Prior knowledge:
Helices cover 84% and strands 0% of the residues. It is an all-alpha fold.
Amino acid sequence: MTQQTESINQRIHAFSDAVGKLLVDVFHYLALFAIGGAIVWSAGLAFLGMAMKGHASIDDILLLFIYLELGAMVGIYFKTNHMPVRFLIYVAMTALTRMLIADVQAHHRPDMGIVLVSGAILLLAFATLVIRYGSFKYPSDRPDSKA
């Protein structure tokens, strides 16, 4: 009787694990498609807005680069199931650059804000360097690793 109960318990656990993994995978792919669709939709609307204006400013072009980086990040995550942190940093750097250019174009005056935003961009560039060096020096996908 005890062996039968244990066998049923193991089958229930195996079934629960399989269903749980399936549900997580379905949610994962649905969320990725939704995020990717939202990026394409937003980028398309931004591009249409530029076409309606008849020209694209540097601010508009940097916005398209942000959409490109977000799309690449979703694509990489879709293929590898790893979040590419570097791409988040690239998005932040591009957004800060966009903000810096818009501020300089609007105000035409040097102030501490320009230095602070430039310092933030430099800090993010340094963070990217550290991440790239770390992933080169200590790769996580070693064939001999047991993890």
